[in-house]
Design goal:
Helices cover 36% and strands 26% of the residues. The protein is built from 14 helices and 17 strands. The strands form 2 sheets. Strands 7, 8, 9, 10, 11, 12, 13, 14, 15, 16 and 17 form an 11-stranded mixed β-sheet that branches. Strands 3-2-1-4-5-6 form a 6-stranded parallel β-sheet, with helices on both faces. It binds L-homoserine. L-homoserine (HSE) binds next to helix 7.
Amino acid sequence: MKPVKVGICGLGTVGGGTFNVLKRNADEIARRAGRKIVVEEIGARRENPAIDTKGTQMTSDVFAVATNPEIDIVVELIGGYDVALDLVMTAIENGKHVVTANKALIAEHGNEIFEAAQKKNVMVAFEAGVAGGIPIIKAIREGLSANRINWLAGIINGTGNFILTEMKEKGRDFDDVLKEAQELGYAEADPTFDVEGIDAAHKLTILSSIAFGIPLQFNKAYTEGISKITSEDVQYAEELGYRIKHLGISRRTDHGVELRVHPALIPEQALLANVNGVMNAVVVDGDAVGQTLYYGAGAGAEPTASAVVADLIDVVRTLTADRDNRVPHLAFHPGSLYDTPIAAIEQTETACYLRLSASEQPGTLAAITSILGEQGINIEAIIQKETSEQQVPVIILTQKVQEQKMNDAITAIEALAEINGSVTRIRVEQL
Ligand code: HSE
């Protein structure tokens, strides 16, 4: 059979990794795909000195790749939104299949991209966009397709997990660890996407759609980052038997699908609590299978290339398949997506960890606990350390409460004259 010709756009960390894996494992890949996969052309603004592209046609114009009549599949690895969207749409318009690692693009423009792809009868594959090398999209979309998914929760940003792990285990400084993650090629071009949870929200939006059969709705995701977590929070969480992790959680509830990214205390014996460094992990709870866990490298050149190349092989295998029998982009057939609402964060129910700075005087704790009591919030544990200072940290672990009630209680506590500054709230997930 004739080889399939691929054009790679972008030769950065993931583009370079993809080129190398395709070259190194060419024979094995051909045996799996049923035909050879060759890189016909690379489009990149700059050469990558670490990658030996000798013998492969290069262009600085990525659109030349998307319109090259020789090319069957365009691999979009330039990242970002604007040019990437134009590039993917141009490729589709020209009848090319697309493989991308661009979670931002899929989460924010996936609905229109898939519609265009459907019309042109081409595939758009995006496994590498979520959790790097872990085949989580394939697992949910195909492996778990018998199940009604109840919920999923994951550590889906390697940079954030790397930062939290290094801070906890080595007491390292936030900025210093972030710089290392950037040097290792883990961090996004704009690292606030990693630390403020935007990258994780992009990935969660995608997982949520394929788990629950709903359109992509990134703009409705609740997103909170890790930049306000202090080493004291990490320590107090440990005293209470928990670890702090940055989680993406999506859950089916009576009032809609929860879609939220925020730091959370999770019991130290939970599997996710022990996922460290740049590793990612996702737990999926299905009605038939129960809980399943997927773990692996969430970022980096070759782990991400592993997912890009697996998508390429999948596309090659389906080139001859009947289009109506291809795996649908969002796991459910386009006409079968539901309009289930995304639940407002105020409706979410979680237990909470609260840290506040209170003045050392009689009646302070009574004032705090009576506010909690008025909102019907039950206290699970409370820590106040002996001190010679005028202000003491008070840590409270509550039982499950509706977010809106906790918001009201926090506002009332912050208004007390005995409370200094704002209250830190971290949600608790028992998973
Ligand atoms: N910046 C992302 C992360 C890269 O750290 O997880 C992989 O998507």
